[in-house]
């Protein structure tokens, strides 16, 4: 036999009443608007409203109207005017004038002075020095090439000209045309590609054709007093450092080298 169904002892709460109340405080206005909207809808279904009583718009119409007002206000509000940037003065200065125009060396107004290195320790530096020398030699003017690897005095001389200390990193090459500092490898390439480098070398004396027969184009020869050993012997004092040559036992070629600065 089937067991008779009994009444459940579980108490069911009224969910409709609880759903109508919002527990979150920010929904209190929405609750009131929805209640008014539901009341007006029930009145419309029951009977026609009195002509003298105006019908209140629903919540959706209110939201649409507020959005329309906000859009109209944002479109009519004038945008803040930004100040126009001041035009920068045009500069026709070359890269050499913008780099270090105040640096110059005395006694070199009629030639080009190039400080470089012939060592291949740093390949990029060696390639820059070789390309700059090749560009300048193409103009066939007088060039005073000063190799820092052949004579350490050139390094001290260049640091004094640029007003740098020994701890400061020095990049090579450095080019002076007519006694005025022009720049390094990048500046020389830019001037040469733009056709401006030719204007810098105009008026300089032409270089002598051929290679020097004494030094072979190196600019240095062995010292006559120490024969390149940088040491001299005397009976009284024994061995002493030669004062006529540099640390490598070399002296400037008297035939093709320019006078020291």
Write the layout of secondary structure elements.
Blueprint: H1 15-20, H2 28-46, H3 59-76, H4 95-99, E1 112-116, H5 123-137, E2 143-147, H6 153-162, E3 174-177, E4 180-183, H7 185-194, H8 197-201, E5 220-222, E6 231-234, E7 238-241, E8 250-252
Parallel strand pairs: 1-2
Antiparallel strand pairs: 1-3, 3-4, 5-8, 6-7
Helix pairs in contact: 5-7
Structure description:
Residues 113-182 form the Glutaredoxin domain. Residues 91-102 have a biased composition (Polar residues). Residues 39-58, 73-105 are annotated as: Disordered. This protein has 261 residues and is of the alpha+beta class. Helices cover 34% and strands 12% of the residues. It has eight helices and eight strands. It has helices spanning 15-20, 28-46, 59-76, 95-99, 123-137, 153-162, 185-194, 197-201, and strands at residues 112-116, 143-147, 174-177, 180-183, 220-222, 231-234, 238-241, 250-252. The strands form three sheets. It has a four-stranded mixed β-sheet. A two-stranded antiparallel ribbon has the order 5-8. A hairpin with a 2-residue loop joins strand 3 (174-177) and strand 4. Helix 5 runs parallel beside helix 7.
